[in-house]
Amino acid sequence: MWELNPDLKIETLLINDSPAYVVDNFYETPHQVARYLFNRNTPLYKMYEGGSNNRNGIDFEDRVFREQKLTPAHAFIETLCGRKPFEECSISTNQHRFKCNNYNRKYKTHYWWAHLDGGYNGIVYFNHDNVNGTNLYHNHSHQLPENEEGTDPWIPKSHLKLVHHFEPKFNRLVLFDGSIFPHGMAINNDRYHCKRFVTAPWNTYRSNQVFFYK
Q: What confidence tier does 91 reach under pLDDT thresholds 50, 70, 90?
């Protein structure tokens, strides 16, 4: 299931002199990987951050699945970026969707939660979507939020300078240094908005697999 596609295509980028990568046709059997990752009851993430101000499960759903397992993808990404993976986050996923309300209409004037990580980040997209990818922001002229992610994740676009947008594509891996660039998911339309949170297929969420490297 975890085999990489022998015909994968690697593009190398320099973003402000930092190497980044786009790899298309990443998994050999991406639908099988997606079923394993997302056909489960994935819990809401950081439900207790911010106490009663936490909006996760109210205005949006942010769900994370983690499992202790290294796969051929980890070795491949290690070769690309020259870093070791954080083993405690061997397999990790992100799933998001948003309630149709005034709060989430902010996507037209705001960016979603920009943050820094400890090293390289890899993201594999599992939606057939070419709009809602990943944004990288300028590393010197940003204003990162002081509040918790779950309490008020929308940031006015005037507070961040967009450096690069990775376009999403089904079975595409993007890899960049998340310790240099504040980054966050790009929400550019209402594709993942819904009227109410009820049980729904995984592909109605913005669904990614993510990798973290030291």
A: very high
